Amino acid sequence: MRMPVLIVACLILLPFVPAHAKEPWADEPAFKSLVKQETKTLRGLLTTALKKDYRRQAWYLADRLVQLDPTDDKATDVLDRWDGQELTMGQVPNKGWVKKRDGTLRKLGDAYFHFGEVLEASGMDPLKYYPINIRAHAYGSQAGNLLTALDQAGYVWLGVYGAKPRKEVDTLLGEAWSSFTFPQEYEDKYLEARAVWPEANGARWGQWLLLTDHGYKEALRLLGMLRAAETWMVDTFGSKAKKNDKTVTRLLVFSEWQAYDKIGRPLLEGRKRLDPADFDGTSGWHDRRYDRLMVCWRHRDNPYLGDDDLMLGHAAKVMARRHLAGGAGGSVQGKGYWLLEGLRGAFEGFRLDQDGNGEIDPGSCWRLAVARVLRDQGLLIPWDEFMELSELQGKKLDRPTIKIKFGGTERDAKNVDIVAAQATALVVGILKTDGGKKRKRFAKLVGDLLKRDSLPDIDKTLGLKKGKAVAMAEVAMDAAHGLENK
After folding, report:
1. N or C: which end of the chain has fewer CB within 10 A?
2. Residues linked to residue 201 through DSSP beta bridges, in sequence order
3. How far apart, in whole angstroms, are the C-alpha atoms of residue 240 and residue 233?
4. Do residues 310 and 346 make contact, with C-beta atoms less than 8 angstroms apart?
5. Tens digits of per-residue pLDDT, 95-112?
6. Is the dihedral of CA 320, 323, 324, 328 positive or negative?
7. How confident is the model at residue 329 (pLDDT cuts 50, 70, 90)?
């Protein structure tokens, strides 16, 4: 089936035109038969979804039915039955039902593709029946001619993002783009996000499902940076991840902190042993119970930070648990909790060089600039006291606003976490000094902390002379961006 470049370039992902609309094919017997088949199929899936309380699936199926027939009372009733929060409480479809759904919808997609072939044979302008092709893709059709036509036109199918130019995707992801996958409109984890966040779309890599209200270009750039950071962590520290671990972490990146507040807080309400008020005022939060990491694209207090700094920083703690502790499930609240905050601060400065190689760049770690100013003003916590701090003690400390020079510009660093800044200096110092020779031992230190919620003597564990780790932190602070080294 033809799909000229001009046509694909001019159109974005379009919703399927309802059967009642007077399109050129609307009165064709073959099309009416197709819609009848689609309606019957969707109603069958809807019935079983309702019986099993797969309410997100029922919501999707009802929406499709209403697009086919706005007078469908049963489908309309389903759409009105639950609000967004209630939709998230439905059951997760089992593998058997998902397999049946995928196969059933794929057959519908194939049927739409074949109908498109009929329209093409009639001599119809491909621009007019483009929505037919889109519906075939959206239902997951794997028809060879359909995929070949898209490929020959220089486009790739990106699931909920629709058809996009291959050159743009290659520029964003390079040769690795084939390792990225994209949810279809009916996938449950995607629907769960859309239930409370209608603007969300997404993409997958590895054990991450990125969901964001950004357009596809920024979404792919973010996910590409996440891939680079996790690859660097594994190459640098090694991995103890369990081979059978198929956990998928949903990463929600909000373009505005107001949306983060509006959507994130309700998702945490009702949790045992969790006060949702702790979420207020944050720019990132890991809800481990549901493997959900929520972050702001920009820091609410310090918006001059880079577009992926917050994401990479918070994701580093999730990656550390996965790779350095083998997915250990305990929480870290005791002495040494700050080591994870330091790891987060270090990964906020993760960058790619001109050759595309990743590394922690001290000049890009804003918390280093904070730590240096705090040091010069005599506001750092004495190191012997710092080493003994627990999370509860750290939370009680004041969070001042100070002047820093970062990115070559003097800025206000607001709501400064002194502990996190000091910990970032320590971690970056360990990772960068002496050519990073202590990185493997550092990885074991982090892994043991995650497993045991206990931190031994850092110098001794790293095989350093007493006080050497602190000296490394001093070197890191001297490398703060925009400041002359001493």
Report:
1. C
2. 212
3. 12
4. no
5. 999 999 999 999 999 999
6. positive
7. confident
The one-letter amino acid at 141: S
CA-only gyration radius of the chain, Å: 26
142 alpha-carbon distance from chain centroid: 27
CB of 204 within 8 A of CB of 161?
Answer: no
Half-sphere exposure of 374 (CA within 13 A, CB side): 28
- Amino acid letter, residue 346: A
DSSP string, 287-354: EGGGTEEEEESS-SS-TTS-TTHHHHHHHHHHHHHHHTSTT------STTTHHHHHHHHHHTTEEE-T
Q: In the block, which residue shows the tokens 């969300």? A: 200
Strands (E), 336-455: 350-352, 358-360, 402-406, 409-413
The encoded tokens of residue 252 equal 């929600």
H-only helix segments in 52-94: 55-68, 73-81, 84-87
Q: What is the DSSP-derived secondary structure letter of residue 484?
A: -
Residues in the chain, overall count: 486
CB of 26 closer than 8 Å to CB of 19: yes
Does residue 194 carry a pLDDT above 50?
A: yes
Contact 1, 133 (CB under 8 A): yes
Nearest to 365 by CA among 305, 408, 410: 305
Cβ neighbour number for residue 7 with a 10 Å cutoff: 17
Angle of the 130-138 helix axis to the 95-121 helix axis, nearest 10: 160
Q: Which helix (H) or strand (E) holds 209?
A: strand 208-212
Q: What is the dihedral of CA 204, 210, 212, 217, to 10 degrees?
A: -50
Look at the block and give the residue holding tokens 């932190």. 473
CA 130 from chain centre, in angstroms, equals 31
